[in-house]
């Protein structure tokens, strides 16, 4: 084992503990940085993970993508190179020893600049696995992240020093065992970059009918090649990815905007509320009205037999 790998508990835990006293997610004054705390083990829950570095300072979590698990703890970090629909699970946590950590959004422009400046070769199309990977934490990376967290206690220095530390963290990642995965998304003539552009388009146009040939042509790929690489990186077909985006936006509309089931279904591009309810139930494990009531902390009414049948 490389002696630079960290085997002892992460020293970042004390800093994060000071800033996150309650379970949940906490945005910070540093752009792109959020902290989290979980006081109990939780089953996998649906989430969208942006291109990010995710660290656990205490406890253990796992990200599930297409049935494949990516466990990470203080000795292993998670890195994602695309916007990935996934399920996040808390594996080790308790009220006495909460699972705590951070999420730092990656800046592709910084990665591309550093690759050019350092002279790293662009990773071309021999892509392995999905758009996520587990890397071994190293002392230089942990030290750089520690400096970033220290700025939370010196807020006046954040505008000046945070950009410098963020560049160092990106640099350390490019010299980690996840370097090739990150370089894939910066190579403008590479498949990973093109899939990322297709995902950007889907996020903006998820409510419109999807034509695979047109989207493939938009990112300069043949339809079979596009479909193959899209599934390889995201563990979903483009149509499944669009469906995931639609259902999560509908969930947001019902929860936050208080739209009813039919209005939410039509708003995200469904033509049939019954089809919407069936697909919603498959993703979230409950029919729409039942799920929203649970999210609001309400005791849901008994579901009508029709809605229960539509949910699964």
From TrEMBL:
A GO MF term: DNA-binding transcription factor activity
Gene3D superfamilies annotated for this entry? Answer: Homeodomain-like
Which intervals hold domain HTH araC/xylS-type?
Answer: 196-294
Query: Its Gene Ontology biological processes?
Result: positive regulation of metabolic process
Supply the InterPro entries for this chain: Homeodomain-like_sf (IPR009057), HTH_AraC (IPR018060), HTH_AraC-typ_CS (IPR018062), Tscrpt_reg_HTH_AraC_N (IPR009594)
Which UniProt key words apply to this protein?
DNA-binding, Transcription, Transcription regulation
Q: Which domain of life is it from?
A: Bacteria
Q: What's the protein called, per UniProt?
A: AraC family transcriptional regulator
What is the originating organism of this protein? Pseudomonas vanderleydeniana
